[in-house]
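Subject: design request, 641 residues
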């Protein structure tokens, strides 16, 4: 029998001790690893199993105009969150909620019994009204929670709808600026977390954890809400008066490309966009639609000819016999029989097509189309709005004598309204082409520092300051003495150009009876602050001329906008040349102190509405000296001294 010596025992004890030491050492390092390295992750997993998160949605950033006027806001609209394991009586809870929510019973029961930590009823339980939220609070049933949420509010209704766009039920931008600037406006979600046991019962001994949502940044636009309201009013009136297929208007600051107003018809309510067809709300006509510009495009031809020193507006002449033959085609003037011998200033005033054909021929294909390209036609302007089109230009191999001639007066090419406005802004502001913009900057109102930035962008100079000054002068003559007289505004110097373009039919030919009439104008003519573009598509029950339909609308927008901006009145402008059946405006006489019998002598040019009792006039409206249309009513108030 083998004897176990003390040495052997000692060796075995050492080995066992060594193994135990290694075991404890491993356990020590394992414990340290768990505590120091993976402890937070394990704790988070455990808390995730115990916790229930009630989502708190952030408020989207507001959208404000250039003066801080709120155009898009948020209103509280909480959503229902359900913790199924806390529901005590499914049937009673179902019956109670069915009296509040318009939801299918089977769908509701599935939510109440689902094996999930938190259930949201979509969409019936989202964006609840104040009444619905109060009713759910009054139920005071376990497992029902109201999660913070909000929905977009549009204080101005349909105004600026296509620019602003709208959001879906998840507060995600779907169209317009709401979609374009989703990353700026959206913000980050938060939650209210509480702990529960395995059966879903709330652990009251553990504190709730609130992670607040981070609201989105505000977006400031270049839009002026007051000028926008003027534009909306005029388009509404145009729709009621002429019942056109479509209508649109743009107001821009020509000195930096900032859009002050933009609207189109038909329009929609962003808060209820589902009520309209996608063809309405998906098309922002000022940037999306393309059509032949007609005579408003003549501004580009005119500026190119002046820049190349090809004509002197007052010295050089052109004889218009009513038409011109080019490449076998007969291109007519709108004025039957023509305008006869006229200076090129009169060619512009009369919007004479043959005269502009002559200018195009003088420029030649290469020079005319080089200017057209330099002005930005044939490419997107880069405006910060979705859905911009590029327009359609002739390719080089397509341009023959006829194409050159028709392009010179705005026929055969297709452009967008925003391209026209940007180009004409450059023609009148000294020659500087800007990238148009509707966004001025962003700002997080919860931070002390602002991230506001200037989005205006200068592109290039297209003509000289001297040429731009000549263009402004010629276009002021158009409004005072030419086809744009409907846009004349007493006390202000206004320049502009009318346009009447035949619509292209479905088969590709021109319609004989349907036109897009337009006007583009600016003021003050010698130092422009506003540029206004109006286009009315196929107006009914009227003569379809830009000077008849579009220019008066443009004139009212210009006049009311200038008065809103407190632009001083001027007396150094051109006098309007009146033509039958137009009647010149008259000065309101000073009626203060006149007796009832003496008022009769003033009834030739004005009507007088007498109010009050007394022997003489003590006040009147409008004030003496104000110019009004012949036949306007002056209200006087009678009294005694």
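Subject: RE: design request

Done. Sequence follows.
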């Amino acid at each position: 029998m083998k004897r176990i010596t003390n040495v052997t025992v000692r060796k075995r004890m050492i080995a066992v001790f060594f193994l135990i030491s290694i075991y404890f050492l491993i356990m020590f390092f394992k414990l340290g690893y768990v505590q120091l390295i993976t402890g937070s992750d394990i704790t988070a997993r455990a808390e995730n199993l115990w916790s229930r998160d009630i989502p708190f949605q952030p408020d989207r950033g507001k959208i404000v105009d250039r003066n801080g006027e709120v155009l898009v806001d948020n209103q509280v609209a909480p959503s229902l969150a359900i913790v199924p394991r806390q529901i005590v009586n499914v049937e009673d809870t179902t019956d109670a909620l069915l009296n509040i929510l318009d939801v299918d019973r089977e769908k509701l029961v599935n939510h109440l019994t689902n094996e999930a930590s938190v259930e949201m009823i979509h969409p019936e339980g989202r964006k609840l009204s104040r009444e619905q939220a109060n009713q759910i609070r009054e139920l005071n049933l376990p497992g029902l929670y109201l999660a913070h949420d909000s929905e977009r509010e549009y204080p101005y209704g349909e105004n600026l709808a296509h620019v602003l766009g709208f959001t879906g039920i998840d507060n995600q931008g779907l169209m317009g600026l709401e979609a374009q600037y989703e990353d700026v406006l959206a913000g980050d979600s938060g939650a209210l977390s509480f702990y529960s046991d395995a059966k879903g019962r709330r652990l009251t001994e553990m504190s709730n954890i609130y992670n607040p949502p981070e609201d989105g940044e505000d977006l400031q636009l270049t839009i002026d809400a007051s000028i926008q309201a003027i534009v909306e009013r005029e388009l509404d009136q145009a729709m009621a008066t002429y019942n056109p297929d479509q209508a649109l208007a743009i107001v821009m600051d020509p000195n930096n490309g900032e859009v002050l107003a933009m609207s189109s018809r038909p329009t929609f309510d962003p808060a209820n966009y589902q009520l309209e067809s996608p063809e309405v709300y998906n098309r922002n006509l000022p940037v999306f639609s393309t059509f032949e510009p007609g005579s408003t495009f003549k501004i580009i031809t005119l500026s190119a000819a002046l820049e190349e020193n090809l004509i002197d507006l007052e010295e050089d002449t052109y004889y218009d016999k009513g038409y011109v033959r080019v490449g076998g085609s007969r291109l007519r003037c709108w004025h039957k029989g023509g305008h006869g011998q006229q200076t090129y200033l009169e060619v512009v005033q009369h919007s004479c097509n043959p005269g502009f054909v002559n200018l195009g021929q003088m420029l030649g294909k290469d020079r005319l189309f080089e200017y057209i390209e330099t002005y930005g036609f044939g490419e997107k302007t880069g405006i910060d709005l979705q859905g911009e089109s590029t327009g359609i230009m002739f390719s080089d191999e397509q341009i023959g004598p006829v194409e050159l001639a028709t392009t010179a007066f705005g026929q055969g090419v297709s452009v967008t309204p925003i391209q026209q406005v940007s180009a004409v802004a450059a023609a009148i502001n000294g020659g500087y082409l800007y990238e148009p913009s509707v966004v001025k900057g962003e700002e997080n109102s919860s931070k002390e520092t602002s991230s506001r930035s200037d989005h205006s962008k200068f592109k290039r100079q297209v003509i000289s300051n001297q040429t731009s000054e000549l263009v402004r002068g010629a276009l002021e003559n158009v409004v005072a003495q030419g086809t744009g007289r409907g846009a004349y505004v007493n006390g202000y110097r206004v320049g502009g150009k009318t346009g009447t373009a035949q619509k292209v039919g479905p088969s590709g030919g021109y319609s004989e009876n349907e036109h897009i009439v337009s006007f583009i104008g600016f003021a003050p003519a010698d130092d422009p602050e506003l540029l206004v573009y109006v286009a009315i598509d196929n107006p009914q029950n009227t003569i379809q001329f830009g000077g008849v339909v579009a220019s008066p609308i443009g004139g009212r927008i210009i006049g009311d906008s200038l008065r809103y901006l407190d632009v001083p009145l001027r007396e150094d402008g051109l006098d309007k040349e009146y033509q039958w059946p137009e009647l010149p405006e008259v000065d309101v006489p000073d009626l203060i102190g006149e007796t009832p019998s003496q008022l009769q002598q003033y009834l030739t040019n004005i009507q007088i509405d007498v109010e009050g009792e007394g022997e003489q006039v003590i006040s009147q409206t409008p004030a003496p000296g104000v110019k009004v249309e012949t036949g306007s009513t002056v209200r006087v108030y009678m009294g005694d001294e």
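Residues 447-452 have pLDDT under 50 and may be disordered.
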